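Lab notebook, bench 4. The sequencing result for the construct came back, and we need a structural model before the next group meeting so we can plan mutations. Quick request posted to the team channel:

Model the 3D structure of this chain.
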Amino acid sequence: MPTPNSSLADKIYESQFAEPAERLEAFADLAAIVKQLRRDCPWDRDQTHESVKHLLIEEVYEVVEAIDNGDWDELAAELGDVLLHVLFHAVIAEEGGRFTLADVIEAETDKLVRRHPHVFGDAARDDADAGATSWEEIKQQEKNGEAEPSSVLEGVPVQLPALLQAQRVQEKAAGVGFDFPDRDEAWQKVQEEVGEFRDSVEGDQSPERQQQEFGDLLFALVNYARYMDVTPENALRETTGRFARRFQHVESRLSARGASIDEADLSEVRRLWEEAKGREE
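Done. Here's the predicted structure in token form:
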């Protein structure tokens, strides 16, 4: 890779994508502010990687919420908070002599170039699915070069929400060919798991067994969703949000009459629920 001081003509990317100088200066200003906060602010100075890691997770969820709400001003602000945490962790690491912000950027730059030979190399590939497969194949080749053998599934954080974790595990396995041949067979697996879960319930099997079968069913549904280009985490988040909005509409309408949902007639609750659906549609 070119060094940071090499001319623009030597860069691997096209010159039209180079960031304007004022944006680079704005980034440098933010990095400098973070360093000064680490020196002069008692709270910032006391923090460690461990003490603020949960805040980074919180900020990422706030980014997701802004995207879900279509609030682009809020998204810009929340992305800034995530960037702040990236800089903060890099500065803490630099103070400890572990790595610098430049190391973070250069490692990611190298990775992106290396895993996109169809963009920065000789490989010609226009298909998005093939590109994703290539990414996983190259990633595994990199890991196979390490001293210790590694699993294809390494790199999927155990802290991910369960649906997203299942999706990423399945994507990685599919990236090396471990997958159903088509979506019809994936759907057959869903139907098989539905039957096994129903049998566990109707057969009054142990709670542990029923939970296992339900987990298998969810896993199969996540797998089928991949064939339909549906992200299960996003789909369930959207459905949960839609349910909450409709439920709150029912609560609001009943409250306006001086009633609560637990006291209302079921037929009236259902009517208000359909009313909420109609308002959304």
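Confidence is low (pLDDT under 50) at residues 1-5.
Will bring this to the meeting.
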